[in-house]
Amino acid sequence: MEWQAWFATVVFLIVYGFIISENIHRTVVALCGAAILILLGVVNQGEALTYIDFNTIGLLLGMMIIVNITRTTGVFEFVSIKAAQRTGGDPVKIMIALAAVTAIASAFLDNVTTVLLIVPVTLSICRQLALPALPFMVTQIFASNIGGTATLIGDPPNIMIGSAANLGFVDFIVNLAPIIVIIFVVTIYIFTLIYGKRLKVEEDKKSVLRNMNPYETITDRVLLRKSLLVIAVVLLGFILHQNLSLESATIAMSGAALLMLLTGDDPEASLGSVEWGTLFFFIGLFILVGGLVKVGIIEIVAHRAVDMTQGSLPALAMLILWFSALASAFVDNIPFVATFIPLIKDIGNISGMDISSLWWALSLGACLGGNGTLIGASANVIVSGLMAREEEPMSFVRYMLVAFPVMLVSIVLSMIYLLVVYL
């Protein structure tokens, strides 16, 4: 068993190294690592399947299908243009309005899809008004990651935490939404102080925004009505799923099936737009972490964490919050959270404490910490890629000099919230 413990640890660290380096696609690396553990008998095939969290996979798959069908209607572009027009052409108000749209959308969709939909519209508005795009892009990165932290379905780490800890949609809203609203307001205020003086629009440019017709972006009104109906039913299902004794994946997959039925189209298009690479990345990762659980590595680390903090729940929560925030700024937060979930479970088993606050510490640290650098979260990478096509590219250092201190402010606010409310 000792060689298996060392072997599982080495394989995991090598896979993590490749994920960080991005020399090989993370999905390929994760699946190869999982295959090696199975082939060499660290875990057998049956055990590997039990380590896969199919609730997480099902929830992600269902929401991907629903969002991908809805996005074809043009509703997200419509909302973005409408929000910008209501500001009267004031550039600071436009930045705040689009950030608010991004945050709200990210709470109820995944934040990667949200930035893919809203960022191109924002760039178009910036070009029309001759505004620098960078302030809007930095603000929307923060808005997407902050908004996604507020709900079970907004960010993949929350989906994983909710499934592992048996936490529902309402649990996340009640426990995280209050501090997320505060963090969003404080963060946007800081950005208005940083960028406000740079954002000026000439009067003749404002007429361009006023003359834009948001209704032209709606491509299929019938499909839009069907999509909004299904999304409403799914959100109601998320709110009630614990009372109905249904898993969140069941709600999401049922909603996806219903929407595909209502569209009456060939399902190949809906299924073809699913991010299968992301789903298989999760599968490989679950098996890798399962290998660490089986050989006892996670339990050993949990004992060390409890000993180091002398069993103090506040100290454990602060350790998890700050460590996950700083690590997630430089490392993909999905494998990080996948590793920490069994660790927190073992801490609960060892100490016998109520560990609910540790789950919120992990969520806040991992999701908000991703704002610190351009590689901290998938949304950041996508926005920087879209910016590369513009005349104002977003460099790693230029982003980090502004974003990292602002991210630390959000973690300090999270720390105060956790200490006051839970600890």
How many separate helices? Answer: 21
Average pLDDT rating: 85
Secondary-structure-based class equals: mainly alpha
Report the helical percentage.
Answer: over 70%
Main pleated-sheet profile: none
Verbal overview:
The chain has 423 residues and is an all-alpha fold. The chain has helices spanning 2-21, 26-39, 45-51, 54-71, 75-85, 91-108, 111-129, 134-149, 156-165, 169-195, 203-211, 221-240, 248-263, 267-272, 276-295, 297-308, 313-330, 333-351, 356-369, 378-387, 396-421. The protein contains 21 helices and no strands. Helix 5 (75-85) packs across helix 7.
What is the topology?
Blueprint: H1 2-21, H2 26-39, H3 45-51, H4 54-71, H5 75-85, H6 91-108, H7 111-129, H8 134-149, H9 156-165, H10 169-195, H11 203-211, H12 221-240, H13 248-263, H14 267-272, H15 276-295, H16 297-308, H17 313-330, H18 333-351, H19 356-369, H20 378-387, H21 396-421
Key traits:
423 residues; mainly alpha; 21 helices; 78% helix; 0% strand; globular
Please sum up the structure shown.
The chain has 423 residues and is an all-alpha fold. The chain is built from 21 helices and no strands.
